[in-house]
């Protein structure tokens, strides 16, 4: 077993500096960053009491025997954290990466997470808002309004949440309606003409009914520019609205109803070129341009991207208490609509564009029964039902510059005219402007689970916990595609063989049917001739058509379900948790746990979805004629240029050992967790240049620790320090898109993630307060990937150093005025990189956002 102390802990000077600071401060409760806030119950800021519900019971952070970080609503307000993309700056075990548009982001905890560029992939990190599971990141990315706190639960969560999460959970808890009238309004203005407005109001309707309304509006010019179109890029244009009712008809019954709507209509995201490959000259040759100054925020596109997200729904939560037993029911229905129209070659040349129209309908029902006995045994028992329907229509569209562009790459502007004449295709048909693919995908996913925990207090201070989750999941999916590319509909080996047979038999190629080929290949006299033709067909020296293979980007698609592939996955799993928690004293708690987790199979809802190897075995150069026996070939289902890939990826199974310490000393809080976490069958999802490949890694593991501390050395002064150290490994990953990665460190996972802050609140005699906050987030230098499928090995690196600051004058009458800055020092780094689309040798990537700053005015009543 690798030691969690193995590896280079020295890191950069920044790591050494802040590790030293942590030792001096002796760390403060992590969680958090929840540090700064007084709770809703009116506890004083200095009391260090942070209430969480990570175990589905209200407990203080120090009493919660799991690794959880908490960010309070006050911290969100002071740090100007508007959505979960910014949350990672105060929760170092969490990383959020935004991809090619406003709706595509990846949530990663302890180095584990999946891309959200494909709606068929279940998230490894579950997002819950007010107890309702949000199945796709696009439904949880809008501005966070009226938030009470955000809890980030690290490691697999199965026994407390009916929807299994193999890597962790982000749980957002908003403020419920109050029976006392109140509210607030806020307006902020910043650089890039950023206007942010939000407000909320709450109060009683009757003696036992309260309401709340809240909303937000966020509009900003783009911090990037599409140079050739003179249009903004990476802008903000989003709003939210939500209404709540809290009904308390009796003393033991509470009903909370929530309805919300959010909208995003933006142009995102900025892509720059890290490596301009050999195809760059052809882009220029057809009158196009591409960005080569990575952090200039200058982009070149043939159209302004359209990103539209509409997300709405409602939930009803009922809580009934009868003596020591409480019952909770949460019923929710949600709809998500996501529309993207984007130039996906990321140049000003009109080569290829994509339209994607997606819709997701989700119904969830959770029912929990929990006890609060005075005796040594307490329990929680729950059931969860999930029903989701996904529909997607996608199109790739060939632009007017495509044929000239690829002709230049081929080295002859008339090359495709000759190919068309030789293959009997209409002139100017290859890469002609218009539809390249028309795609239709759908998936129905239903699952149910039973979960629960039992706590047994052996003696005062020692609690043993056992938990379980049994999940049954089924997915039914259908995928179809029409590929219009004339060249890609012809297999170049088979075309040569058919031509050779026609010549040998002195018949037209149209008469070389499968039956003729079979007879010619097996005939006593003709078999040797067939073998000779076949050997020439797979030899680039004799079959010059093979040089055209790199231009066959979108070959025909084998629709599913079919006679061999039923378009179904069926999974079930029993996960469990074992934990011992001991109160060493009134101020010090320790725990030890072993937990398993599970995530059901994911489906590749993309044009790169191909049969599993075995269902089909392609021949040389994807030849159908030379393909060996397989169910798809023998069933006559094959299409030209068919190859294998990943229709779906099997389940993920997680396990984690964890040892934790939580201490609440006078003025100092400490949370420490050491863990050894493994995922078998991790669902790896990688862009390959023209599509997305979904694979199961055999096993991926990570060892490390999480330290969260908080110190209150004097009245009004609070320091926090949080650190996550990760030592990940691909224990086994033999069939990755970039080769065998077994034994290698996974790319994109930094060894160190740090988050530290200092907050000082100066109280004036008149009751006014001046609140100053400075925070710093760091990711140590790390390789971004393990290689790119087309470009190959590389050494692209990322290091993050973000400084954020704010100052607020809060007057006694409820008015506040302040200033804020995020990324104050304008740190620049690469978010991620990918192979240039249909541009072999080019590497594109996403630059980080620049410095933003502004002023804010609030009034709370």
Write the layout of secondary structure elements.
Blueprint: H1 13-25, E1 51-52, E2 59-60, E3 68-72, H2 73-78, H3 84-87, E4 94-98, E5 105-109, E6 125-129, E7 132-134, E8 147-154, E9 168-174, E10 182-190, E11 194-206, E12 209-220, E13 224-226, E14 231-233, E15 236-250, E16 253-266, E17 272-275, H4 280-285, E18 298-299, E19 306-322, E20 325-343, E21 352-371, E22 377-398, H5 402-410, H6 415-423, E23 434-459, E24 462-483, H7 492-505, H8 514-522, H9 527-537, E25 568-583, E26 588-599, E27 602-603, H10 631-634, E28 648-649, E29 652-665, E30 668-680, E31 683-687, E32 692-696, E33 699-714, E34 717-732, E35 752-763, E36 769-783, E37 797-810, E38 815-822, E39 830-835, E40 843-847, E41 852-860
Parallel strand pairs: 6-9, 13-18
Antiparallel strand pairs: 1-2, 3-8, 4-5, 6-7, 8-9, 10-11, 10-41, 11-12, 12-15, 13-14, 15-16, 16-19, 17-40, 19-20, 20-21, 21-22, 22-23, 23-24, 24-25, 25-26, 26-29, 27-28, 29-30, 30-33, 31-32, 33-34, 34-35, 35-36, 36-37, 37-38, 38-41, 39-40
Helix pairs in contact: 7-9
Membrane topology: Multi-pass membrane protein
Family: Belongs to the TonB-dependent receptor family.
Domain TonB-dependent receptor plug: 61-169
């Amino acid at each position: 077993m690798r030691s969690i102390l193995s590896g280079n802990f020295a890191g950069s000077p920044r790591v050494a500096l802040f590790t030293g600071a942590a030792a001096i401060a002796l760390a403060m409760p992590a969680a958090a960053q929840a540090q700064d806030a007084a709770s809703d119950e009116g506890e004083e800021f200095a009391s260090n009491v942070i209430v969480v519900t990570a175990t589905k019971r209200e407990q203080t952070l120090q009493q919660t025997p799991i690794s959880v970080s908490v960010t309070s609503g006050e911290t969100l307000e002071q740090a100007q954290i508007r959505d979960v993309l910014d949350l990672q700056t105060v929760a170092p075990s969490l990383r959020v990466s935004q991809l090619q548009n406003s709706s595509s982001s990846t949530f990663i905890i302890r180095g584990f997470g999946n891309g959200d560029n494909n709606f068929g992939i279940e998230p490894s990190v579950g997002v819950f808002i007010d107890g309702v599971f949000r199945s796709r990141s696009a439904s949880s990315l809008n501005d966070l309004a009226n938030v009470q706190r955000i809890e980030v639960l690290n490691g697999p969560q199965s026994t407390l949440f009916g929807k299994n999460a193999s890597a962790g959970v982000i749980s957002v808890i908003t403020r419920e309606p109050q029976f006392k009238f109140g509210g607030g309004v806020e307006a902020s203005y910043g650089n890039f003409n950023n206007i942010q407005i939000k407000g909320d109001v709450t109060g009683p309707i009757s003696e036992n009914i309260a309401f709340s309304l809240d909303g937000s509006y966020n509009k900003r010019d783009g911090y990037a520019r599409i140079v050739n179109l003179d249009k903004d890029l990476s802008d903000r244009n989003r709003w939210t609205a939500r209404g709540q009712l809290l009904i308390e008809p009796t003393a033991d019954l509470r009903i909370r109803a929530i309805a919300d709507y959010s909208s995003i209509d933006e142009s995102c995201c900025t892509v720059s070129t890290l490596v301009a490959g050999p195809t760059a000259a052809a882009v220029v040759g057809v009158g196009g341009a591409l960005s080569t100054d990575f952090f200039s925020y200058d982009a070149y596109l043939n159209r302004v991207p359209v990103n539209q997200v509409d997300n709405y729904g409602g939930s009803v939560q009922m809580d009934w208490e009868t003596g020591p037993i409480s019952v909770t029911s949460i019923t929710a229905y949600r709809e998500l609509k996501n529309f993207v129209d984007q130039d996906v070659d990321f140049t000003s040349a009109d080569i290829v564009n994509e339209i994607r129209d997606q819709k997701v309908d989700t119904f969830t029902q959770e029912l929990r029964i929990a006890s609060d006995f005075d005796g040594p045994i307490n329990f929680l028992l729950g059931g969860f039902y999930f029903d989701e329907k996904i529909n997607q229509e996608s199109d790739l569209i060939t632009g007017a510059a495509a044929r000239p562009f690829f002709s230049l790459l081929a080295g002859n502007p008339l090359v495709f005219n000759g190919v068309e004449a030789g293959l009997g295709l209409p002139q100017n048909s290859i890469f002609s402007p218009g539809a390249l693919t028309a795609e239709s995908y759908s998936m129905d996913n239903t699952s149910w689970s039973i979960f629960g925990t039992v706590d047994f207090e052996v003696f005062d201070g020692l609690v043993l916990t056992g938990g379980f989750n049994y999940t049954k999941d089924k997915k039914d999916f259908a995928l179809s595609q029409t590929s219009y590319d004339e060249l890609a509909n012809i297999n170049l080996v088979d075309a040569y063989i058919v031509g050779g047979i026609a010549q040998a038999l002195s018949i037209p190629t149209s008469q070389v049917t499968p039956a003729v080929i079979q007879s010619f290949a097996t005939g006593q006299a003709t078999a040797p001739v067939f073998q000779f033709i076949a050997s020439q067909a797979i030899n680039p020296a004799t079959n010059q058509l093979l040089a055209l293979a790199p231009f066959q980007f979108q070959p025909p698609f084998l629709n599913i379900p079919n006679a061999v592939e039923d378009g179904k996955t069926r999974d079930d799993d029993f996960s469990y948790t074992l934990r011992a928690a001991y109160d060493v004293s009134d101020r010090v708690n320790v725990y030890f746990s072993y937990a398993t987790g599970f995530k059901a199979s994911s489906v590749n809802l993309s044009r790169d979805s191909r049969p599993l190897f075995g269902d089909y075995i392609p021949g040389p150069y994807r030849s159908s004629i030379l393909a060996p026996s397989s169910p798809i070939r023998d069933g006559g289902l094959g299409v030209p240029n068919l190859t294998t890939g990943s229709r779906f990826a099997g389940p993920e199974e997680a396990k984690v050992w964890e040892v934790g310490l939580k201490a609440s000393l006078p003025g100092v809080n400490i949370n420490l967790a050491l863990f050894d976490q493994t995922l078998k069958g991790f669902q790896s999802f990688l862009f390959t240049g023209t599509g997305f490949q979904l694979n199961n890694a055999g096993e991926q593991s990570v060892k490390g620790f999480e330290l969260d501390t908080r110190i209150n050395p004097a009245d009004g002064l609070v320091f926090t320090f949080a650190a996550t150290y990760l030592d990940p490994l691909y224990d086994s990953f033999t069939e990755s898109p970039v080769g065998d990665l077994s034994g290698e460190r996974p790319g994109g996972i930094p060894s160190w993630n740090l988050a530290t802050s200092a907050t000082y609140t100066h109280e004036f005699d008149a009751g006014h307060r001046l609140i100053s906050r400075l925070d710093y987030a760091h990711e140590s230098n790390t390789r971004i990937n393990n290689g790119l499928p087309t470009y190959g090995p590389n050494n692209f690196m990322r290091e993050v150093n973000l400084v954020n600051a704010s100052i607020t004058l809060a007057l006694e009458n409820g008015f506040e005025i302040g200033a804020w800055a995020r990324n104050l020092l304008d740190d620049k780094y690469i978010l991620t990189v990918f192979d240039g689309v249909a541009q072999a040798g080019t590497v594109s990537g996403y630059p980080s956002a620049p410095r933003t700053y502004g002023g804010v005015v609030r009034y709370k009543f």
